[in-house]
């Protein structure tokens, strides 16, 4: 692989349309929403294999001052099935318990009413599968925060499941006529900047900076579900945190 310098790529590629692509996560952490806000179009990658013990159907909230994981029960979850093929199991029963936990944990938080309303609407709506439920959590949060990035599902548009790995990502960017693709920082080891540059697409990775806000009087617990930030921060404060990142 040819080693190219970032400044050379940026000089040769003008960024007119920026795209981000990510599997659907349920009420993910702030970094996920930083990516959504940073792009013009965000593709929910719902027609790829489910990831066991990933963040598609689980995350952490604050309970008694500590990170506590919640997991949405699924039917037949398997890495041999697509995310959008996996149904949620007894969502209404699970949601009732989950909302009670949120009430007990956050009812004294300054923006509890606003945050609870978002979570309640998502968990009490009908969802065909975990992809739909997770995507609903993304769209509901973005609506509240007034993030106007267009969000689409990969299964509805691109018809390129014959492609694999970064070849498929590249194809989505080309179908969108994008010339800038931003990926989460974890992709640095698997994505080839030269391959994207050869197709006149600038590839960057988004890296969150340190984010701290008040969680009652507890020691701060970082990188929880966005649910936590919705409870403790105003919309303006959240946007300040959304801008705390760098592209590498």
Structure description:
InterPro entries: WbqC (IPR014985). This is WbqC-like protein family protein. By secondary structure, the protein is of the alpha/beta class. The chain has one domain. Helix content is 37%, strand content 18%. The protein contains nine helices and ten strands. It has helices at residues 6-12, 30-38, 91-106, 112-123, 130-145, 165-175, 193-198, 226-232, 235-242, and strands at 18-22, 41-44, 58-63, 66-71, 74-75, 87-88, 150-153, 180-184, 202-208, 245-247. The strands form three sheets. Strands 7-2-1-8-9-10 form a six-stranded mixed beta sheet. Helix 3 runs antiparallel to helix 4 (112-123), helix 4 (112-123) packs antiparallel against helix 5 and helix 4 packs antiparallel against helix 8 (226-232). The longest helix is centred in the middle third of the chain and has 16 residues, at 91-106. It is globular, with a radius of gyration of 19 Å.
């Amino acid at each position: 692989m040819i080693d190219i310098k970032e400044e050379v790529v940026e000089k040769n590629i003008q960024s007119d349309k920026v795209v981000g692509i990510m599997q659907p996560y349920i009420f993910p952490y702030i970094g996920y929403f930083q990516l959504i806000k940073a792009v013009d179009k965000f593709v929910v990658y719902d027609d790829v294999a489910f990831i066991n013990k990933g963040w598609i159907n689980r995350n952490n909230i604050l309970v008694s001052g500590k990170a506590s994981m919640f997991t949405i029960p699924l039917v037949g979850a398997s890495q041999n099935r697509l995310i959008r093929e996996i149904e949620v199991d007894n969502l209404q029963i699970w949601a009732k318990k989950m909302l009670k936990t949120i009430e007990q944990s956050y009812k004294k938080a300054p923006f509890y009413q606003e945050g609870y309303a978002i979570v309640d609407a998502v968990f009490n709506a009908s969802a065909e599968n975990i992809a739909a439920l997770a995507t609903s959590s993304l769209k509901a949060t973005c609506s509240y925060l007034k993030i106007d990035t267009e969000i689409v599902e990969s299964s509805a548009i691109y018809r390129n499941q014959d492609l694999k790995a970064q070849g498929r990502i590249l194809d989505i960017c080309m179908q969108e006529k994008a010339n800038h693709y931003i990926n989460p920082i974890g992709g640095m080891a698997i994505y080839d900047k030269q391959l994207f540059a050869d197709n006149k697409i600038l590839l960057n990775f988004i890296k969150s900076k340190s984010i701290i806000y008040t969680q009652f009087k507890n020691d701060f617990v970082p990188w929880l579900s966005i649910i936590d930030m919705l409870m403790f921060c105003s919309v303006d404060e959240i946007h300040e945190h959304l801008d705390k990142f760098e592209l590498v």
